[in-house]
Design goal:
The protein has about 220 residues and is an all-alpha fold. Helices cover about 75% and strands about 0% of the residues. It has nine helices and no strands. α1 packs parallel to α4, α2 packs across α7 and α5 packs antiparallel against α7.
Length: about 220
Amino acid sequence: MNDLKKKIIAEGIATFIMVFLGTGSIVINQEFNGIITHPGIAVTFGVSVTLMIYLFGKISGAHMNPAVTIALAVNREFPLKFFPHYLLGQSAGAILASLSLSFIFPRNKLLGGTYPSGSALESFALEFFLSMLLMMAILSLTKATGIIKSFTGLIIGMVIWLEALFAGPVCGASMNPVRSLGPALVSKEFTSLWIYLIAPVGGTLFAAIIFGKIHLKSK
């Protein structure tokens, strides 16, 4: 198996586990009278991302998120030519995770999908900001060395936990197009999906551009 295939498979598995655990915690919370709670859902997403980074980071980088992949490419931290391959692996992993949850919990209609609780503008603005902040953290950590570098997975997981805790009740705190696409496709519920496809990409690209300018000036 060549190196690129290993990376695609790693991205698919990592994204599958992250989406299965994260959106699965939402489904279980809905099906079992709020047993996990909102803070518990936020922790599940954060810890699952941390775990995947340490399990698959050395193979593929454990992006699990096309918005992150494209921003890394723009910032010249990742070869742009591999983006379609990563997108394929990430999308497949997310969709398979939602299909699995649909099989286990057939009564659940939305499968942990992301939908605005308020206005579309509120959710778009929050998703843009959250994705920008996440990408700033990721780009900063790509430049880290020593002991800080070893804590990369933990720090990124904590950022996601904080953002999900803060904004989850309003917008779902997706920050990831395929995390929202998987449940939407399987449940056939596409309400406001455009927010979760466009805002995260816009936020991560904005972060990449700003970070690039700051980093160049600091050299």
